[in-house]
Design brief:
heterodimer, A: about 120 residues, alpha/beta, Rossmann fold, 6 helices, B: eight-stranded mixed beta sheet
Chain lengths: ~120, ~240
């Protein structure tokens, strides 16, 4: 398993921002995917230590990817941090899908992301 | 065998969405650029940002706010333009050039390019200039991730007898044949996911474009290609001689 954190975000500039905060603020290496299919390919090729996931993705949604991850024993163990601006999302509803942290992207600050990744890896 | 297919939307089609639902969905849609603006703003004030990064973030802030404002302008026009609109003869080339000029900085910042396909015989059309411009800007914003240096997003103008078609051809993911039903279905259900295969772009903008086109007696639609899609608006051809 690599030590990289996989960022799955369709908005390129938001993905850039997450990448910057994780690499600068957390000393993490990162991988990037803009949709669920690309993410699964990357996970197969280079399993990440954690996944930062937006729920609004191209084609298959983030929920679809979470479901897919739970289908396999190895990928089901990868901790997921969801970043979402959706008001109705609750962590307890996502926990069965391997989600360990839920960050509200309308309120989160740059430090919150590396802190959340560190906490799920501790 | 070609998988291309065309789907023209009837002028007479009534939207299944009421204004309240559309407004609610629009607010949700605007969350995406607002979230990005906030994060870019926070990044800009971080101590560890270099001068070069600061310049880049500033540019992204400006372009994202402009995109959000275009979306808001389209939605505002949709709700305020309830009456039939004042129509005038328009040279489509000049309006397309304005759209290309306005969107080019956003495309370039995303490593993309948008061009107007040149043509010699220019058919004039009849439309409301402001409304047509907003429709074309929505199409362009919708295509911003779906081109490349070798395959730029192309604006095209073509005459089809009684109507003139202005299209925006992209090279993005496949568009399902039931795209409009899917979009409206999601909006009507207030579902959180964006447009089925074209996320982070203005699905609501496309619905608004359809409404605006209907107010001009026009129609919007799309053509599926194996490697992308063309979103277009069909407008009445003008009987006048060239104005320019």
């Amino acid at each position: 398993m690599s030590q990289a954190v996989l960022i799955v975000e369709s908005e390129p500039w938001l993905g850039d921002h997450y990448q910057r905060t994780l690499e600068k603020g957390g000393d993490f290496t990162t991988l990037r995917a803009t949709n669920a299919y690309a993410a699964m390919d990357m996970i197969d090729e280079t399993p990440p230590v954690a996944i930062v996931l937006s729920l609004l993705l191209s084609g298959t949604s983030g929920l679809g990817l979470l479901h897919e991850l739970q289908t396999y024993v190895d990928t089901a163990e990868i901790p997921v941090i969801v970043c979402s601006s959706l008001p109705d999302v609750r962590l307890n509803e996502l926990e069965p899908y391997g989600v360990k942290r839920l960050l509200n992207s309308t309120l989160m600050r740059p430090d919150d992301l590396p802190t959340a990744v560190r906490s799920v890896l501790a | 065998m070609s998988s291309e297919g065309s789907r023209r939307l009837s002028v007479a089609t009534q939207s299944a969405l009421d204004d309240t639902t559309l407004t609610t969905a629009a607010v949700g849609e605007l969350m995406s650029p607002l979230v990005l603006l906030r994060q870019l703003g926070l990044a800009l004030t971080a101590e560890s940002v270099s001068a070069q990064e600061r310049q880049l973030l500033g540019k992204q802030l400006t372009l994202t706010s402009e995109r959000a404002l275009r979306m808001a302008a389209t939605l505002s026009l949709t709700t305020t333009s309830q009456q039939s609109l004042q129509l005038e003869p328009i040279n489509p080339v000049s309006i397309c050039q304005e759209v290309v000029h306005e969107l080019s900085p956003l495309f370039v910042a995303h490593g993309q390019k948008i061009i107007l396909e040149p043509r010699t015989r220019i058919p004039l059309l009849v439309a409301n200039r402001r409304v047509l411009q907003q429709i074309l800007l929505s199409f362009g914003d919708n295509a911003v991730y779906y081109g490349s240096e070798s395959h730029p997003v192309r604006m095209t103008i073509s005459g089809h007898g009684a109507f003139v078609r202005i299209g925006v051809r992209d090279y993005g993911p496949a568009v399902p044949i039931d795209t409009w039903q899917r979009i409206e279905g999601r909006v009507a259900r207030r579902a959180p996911a964006p447009m089925a295969t074209r996320p982070t772009t203005s699905a609501i903008g496309l619905i608004a474009s359809r409404r605006l086109a209907e107010l001009m007696g026009s129609a919007v639609g799309f053509i599926r290609h194996r490697d992308g899609a063309t979103f277009y608006v069909d407008l009445r051809a003008s009987g006048q001689m060239s104005l320019l």
